[in-house]
Design goal:
It contains eleven helices and ten strands. By secondary structure, it is α/β, with parallel strands linked by helices. It has two domains: 160 residues, 3-Layer(aba) Sandwich (D-Maltodextrin-Binding Protein, domain 2), CATH 3.40.190; 135 residues, Periplasmic binding protein-like II (D-Maltodextrin-Binding Protein, domain 2), CATH 3.40.190.
Length: 325
């Protein structure tokens, strides 16, 4: 078989290749580091990524956003700092420590380029215990088998702070370093007494566990919690309503804020368009319908609990929207 290639057809082919290359060059890839697949970051990240991508109802032209599973806050900030990710979710405390070189980042280089896109929703500190483990307070964790999450997560940092507030450390427990999903599996098998998790409720892994195993939530309250909040102003009082998880009554605890952060190196125009898409009608519908925490992600809350500077692109949008002076 032979093909007759005319000058005109060759020119058309070259033009199409050039156009295709130009379109590819204009495409922006924007990763969102989230957390474990059984937590809250991952599904929320997926909803936002789908909504702001070019295929979304009010998405950014040429943008391909993806939610990437990770170890959580610290891992996401490290990825942003190294250029391995364009953005990620972080607890407000971890973001503050990273930017200021304090707390968890004491003695380490400051992540001075860390910038805020939006505060999303409150992240509740859960201490989930087997109902038959006899754990009624944080102090009762002494001598128990307790998972405090993986290294690199925000949960492990807060777990250590809470234990210390009640006079305990990892030496006083038999520590495990597992995400909520594997923690729930070990608890079902009777191989774990309790686990910490910081995230929006209802958390899928805990809901699944409560459906098959009798659990309780351990309160973080009293003078110890009050001092913890006074010493660490990124903490706030929080309440988990009764029956959020099957058979579990109302429980008082503490929370931090979930934030979407990026690098100052990201283009102002790109982050402006991403922020605008985040607060579009299409994203609003997706968040409201997609997850229980979605309804708490509001434009008004976006500029609260900042702790670190806003990215100039996000700041421009919030000023135009009238929620930031």
């Amino acid at each position: 078989m032979t093909f007759n290639v005319t000058r005109r057809s060759l020119a058309v082919g070259v033009a199409l290749l050039i156009a295709g290359g130009a379109a590819f060059a204009q495409q922006a890839f924007f990763r969102i580091g989230t957390g474990g697949t059984s937590g809250t970051y991952y599904p929320i990240g997926g909803l936002i990524a789908n909504a702001i991508s070019a295929t979304g109802e009010n998405g950014v032209e040429g943008l391909v956003a993806t939610a990437v599973s990770s170890n959580g806050s610290v891992a996401n900030i490290n990825a942003i700092q190294s250029g391995a990710s364009e953005s990620g979710f972080s607890q407000s405390d971890v973001a503050y420590w990273a930017h200021s070189g304090t707390g968890l980042y004491e003695g380490k280089p400051k992540v001075e380029d860390l910038r805020l896109i939006a505060t999303l929703y409150p992240e509740t500190l859960h201490i989930v215990a087997r109902a038959d483990a006899g754990i009624k307070s944080v102090a009762d964790l002494k001598g128990k088998r307790v998972s405090i999450d993986e290294p690199g997560s925000g949960t492990i940092v807060d777990a250590r702070l809470v234990l210390a507030a009640y006079g305990l450390s990892e030496k006083d427990i038999t520590p495990e370093y597992l995400k909520p999903g594997p923690s729930g599996e070990k608890m079902r098998d009777g191989a774990l007494d309790a686990f910490f998790f910081v995230g929006g409720f209802p958390a899928g892994a805990i809901t699944e566990l409560a459906a098959s195993t009798a659990i309780t939530l351990v309160p973080v309250s009293g003078p110890e919690a009050e001092k913890l909040i006074a010493d660490n102003q990124f903490f706030a009082v929080n309440t988990v309503p009764a029956e959020t998880y099957k058979g579990v009554g109302e429980m008082q605890t503490i929370s931090v804020a979930a934030q979407w952060v990026t690098s100052a190196k990201q283009s102002d125009d790109l982050v402006y368009n991403i922020t605008k898409a985040l607060w579009s009608d299409g994203t609003r519908k997706a968040l409201d319908a997609g997850h229980a925490k979605g309804k708490l992600i509001t434009l008004e809350n976006a500029v609260s609990s900042a702790g670190i500077p806003f990215h100039p692109g996000a700041e421009k949008f919030y000023k135009e929207a009238g929620v930031l002076k």
